[in-house]
Amino acid sequence: MTTSRHDPPPLGAENPHPPRTPSAAELADMDQEQLATLAANLDDVEIVHNQRKFPIPGTRAEKRAERAVAMWFLISALSAVAFIGVFLFWPFEYKAPGDPGYALYSYYTPLVGFTFGMAVLALGIGVISYVKKFFPDEVSVQQRHDGASDEVARRTVMAQLAKAGKDTDIARRSLIKRTAGLAAGVFGLGLGLAAVAPLVRDPWKGREEAALWVTGWKPVNGETVYLRYDTGDPHEIALVRPEDQDPGSMMTVFPFRESERGDEEALIRALRRADNPVMLIRLRPGTPVVLREGQEDFHYGDYYAFSKICTHLGCPTSLYESQTQRILCPCHQSQFIATEYAKPVFGPAARPLPQLPITVNDEGYLVATGDFPEAIGPSFWEIHGS
Ligand code: FES
């Protein structure tokens, strides 16, 4: 049996006729077509079959395929424009359920996700359908090589890629080029905006009334804000007295004002508002504590109230282990020490859980003496670890 230079060697054997590596001068003289052919030869690739998808340019089938690809790029571009519009102009400031503008606010995240997802998806489908519709039908056989590629291989691969583009006649497909450029450009612009905008937006806009700085515990017109727990019935007002809680235990509480009694909407809002939940912890008598500077009077005896919203990414820190005094966030395992102003001691959270100032009023109920002195929830540009 005789073998030609193009016969692939048996599996596992070295090619007995490796192609000659051209000199630098020969390489410089080669055109794109020759380089692409050389690339195949160097890689021991034998092209068994190669046929263009549209050998006759300008047919109706070709135009149809071109429009189908362009349509996906156009959808991607429009989605990216919509993403930028939503990201920049849709009302994103937090609104509590029932507040004016809540419905619009609640669509912000789904719309950002949908438009961004569509931009990526349509761009991907556009690229895939371009490859499927225009790349030549090709069957090749290649022997496997070990080790890194050399300079010749790298240059020839680039030539092969360029040839592949040429084989699909990308140069004369201006509709696809324009829509693909539009989609990639607008999508890139959206990504850039998404990266920069959070650094530019002013979390202080609105000052003391800005959504990031105010919770449902903020006193309004001097009205007392009681601590209540949720019985499952918003109309059943279960206010908290110190004797309701055992030493070494934790209770989740929400704000209540007498002016809200009977007002179902306001009562439900107080229970559902994302930044309202507070964990009321009663330490065992005599437990040593370290108080935070400036917040020495925030507790009442052994009672300490901390925001339940994790300062990492906002999960509820629902677990309190009274033996170790650790408050645990189940999401990413951040741990806070209840006896040291809930400062983080493990995990990704970077700052303590904000503490709610509390006392007991003349009637013997636990009440808040003010709102949290800092923003609750995840850290951000001006609120970071301390
Ligand atoms: S949200 Fe609590 S640790 Fe991540």
From TrEMBL:
Q: Which UniProt keywords apply?
A: 2Fe-2S, Cell membrane, Disulfide bond, Electron transport, Iron, Iron-sulfur, Membrane, Metal-binding, Oxidoreductase, Respiratory chain, Transmembrane, Transmembrane helix, Transport
Which Gene3D superfamilies does this UniProt record tie to the protein? Answer: Rieske [2Fe-2S] iron-sulphur domain
Question: What does this protein do, in the record's words?
Answer: Iron-sulfur subunit of the cytochrome bc1 complex, an essential component of the respiratory electron transport chain required for ATP synthesis. The bc1 complex catalyzes the oxidation of menaquinol and the reduction of cytochrome c in the respiratory chain. The bc1 complex operates through a Q-cycle mechanism that couples electron transfer to generation of the proton gradient that drives ATP synthesis.
List every stretch annotated Disordered: 1-24
TM helices/strands, residue ranges: 69-90, 110-131, 180-200
**Where this protein primarily resides, as one coarse class?**
membrane
Domain (Rieske) spans: 275-367
Q: What subcellular compartments does it reside in? A: Cell membrane
The UniProt family comment states:
Belongs to the Rieske iron-sulfur protein family.
| Topology of this chain in the membrane | Multi-pass membrane protein
- The protein's name is Cytochrome bc1 complex Rieske iron-sulfur subunit
User: In which domain of life is the source organism classified?
Assistant: Bacteria
Question: What PROSITE patterns does the database record attribute to this sequence?
Answer: RIESKE
Q: Which PANTHER family does UniProt cross-reference here?
A: CYTOCHROME B-C1 COMPLEX SUBUNIT RIESKE, MITOCHONDRIAL
Q: Which Pfam families would you find in this protein's record?
A: QcrA_N, Rieske
